[in-house]
Write a sequence for this structure.
């Protein structure tokens, strides 16, 4: 099992559970998380979903070793949902999504905050959008959602620099509502999730729809632009250099590349 699923008081908690891989998303975890969101969406007994990670990381993003296999092995078997299916499930998820960032969040472990209705972060956690260091493009509609959430310059720094962002900086930007001591993170997130879950599900859905609907077309357009750019760059010289460097335990050298 790569995803723990538990229910309590109309809150469904999803725990990313690949701690030895820092909860990096392989095809199995993408499929499990997307399917869990689809099931929670359809379950009349679920009012709120709370997402967090097991161990010292929230998620290290896409599993780079598996990404290298996908880029180089035409016979690699992809999952039923994959990354695109998870993003679609997030875009369409009709109920409140609460995210508790318990540790490192890279790639989708950071960009998923664009879909959070409430987000909380341990004060020891950090975020990174490592797209330029991997020679690829943004993902998960972050090129639209991040500027909308935090403003152009903070979004540009996160998406262009591939630098770490601290929990306090994430709170200042508006990516998370509250920064907590690690031991207080889940109790705080659960308390807020329980407050929402005590409200009528029909009303929660109506409020979220009213907030999200004006952005849906722009989110989908951003996702399509990003997917096209990602497909163009994945397997290209910069991406292959980044993946080789990761596999060899060294820093990539892009100085000879455009």
């Amino acid at each position: 099992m790569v995803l723990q699923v538990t229910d309590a008081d109309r809150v469904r908690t999803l725990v990313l559970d690949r701690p030895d891989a820092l909860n990096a998303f392989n095809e199995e975890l993408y499929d499990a998380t997307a399917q869990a969101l689809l099931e929670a969406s359809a379950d009349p007994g679920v009012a709120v979903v709370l997402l967090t990670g097991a161990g010292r990381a929230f998620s290290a993003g896409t599993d780079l070793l598996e990404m290298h296999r996908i880029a180089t092995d035409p016979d690699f078997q992809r999952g039923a949902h994959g990354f695109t299916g998870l993003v679609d499930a997030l875009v369409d998820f009709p109920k409140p999504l609460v995210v508790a960032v318990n540790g490192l969040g890279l790639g989708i472990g950071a960009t998923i905050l664009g879909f959070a209705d409430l987000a909380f972060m341990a004060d020891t956690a950090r975020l990174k959008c490592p797209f330029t260091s991997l020679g690829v493009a943004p993902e998960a509609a972050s090129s639209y959602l991040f500027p909308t959430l935090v403003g152009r310059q903070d979004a540009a720094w996160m998406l262009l620099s591939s630098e770490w962002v601290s929990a306090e900086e994430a709170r200042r930007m508006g990516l998370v509502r509250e920064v907590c001591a690690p031991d207080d993170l889940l109790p705080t997130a659960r308390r807020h999730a329980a407050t929402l879950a005590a409200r009528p599900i029909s009303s929660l859905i109506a409020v979220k729809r009213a907030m999200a609907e004006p952005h849906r077309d722009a989110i989908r357009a951003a996702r399509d632009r990003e997917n096209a750019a990602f497909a163009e760059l994945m397997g290209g010289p910069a991406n292959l250099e980044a993946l080789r460097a990761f596999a060899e335990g060294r820093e990539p050298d892009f100085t000879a590349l455009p």
About this structure: The chain has a mean pLDDT of 95. The first strand starts at residue 3 and ends at 8.
